[in-house]
Design goal:
mainly beta, Immunoglobulin-like, two-stranded antiparallel sheet, 68% strand, elongated
Length: 77
């Protein structure tokens, strides 16, 4: 798992899908969640961070409902 440290109130994520992705969502262990912009090339410009540990999970889904995910732990100081 990747761990990142920051003092910023938000963090941006982006990526490139290697399969036929139809949607990309994100969630923070602190309760926030949302939808990324785009599918093959996707971006989330500002995920809110609370002080302490935030685990950000990004899920990609295809038309058949299959999914893949990645998580990053962000420590906001």
């Amino acid at each position: 798992m990747t761990i990142v440290s920051t003092s910023a109130a938000t963090i941006a994520f982006s990526g490139t899908a290697t399969a036929s992705v139809t949607s990309v969502t994100w969630s923070n262990s602190t309760g926030a969640s949302g939808q990324a912009t785009g599918t093959q090339q996707w971006t989330v410009p500002a995920i809110p961070l609370l002080e302490g540990t935030n685990t950000i999970t990004v899920n990609a889904f295809n038309a058949a409902g299959a999914s893949a995910w990645r998580a990053v732990t962000v420590v906001r100081q």
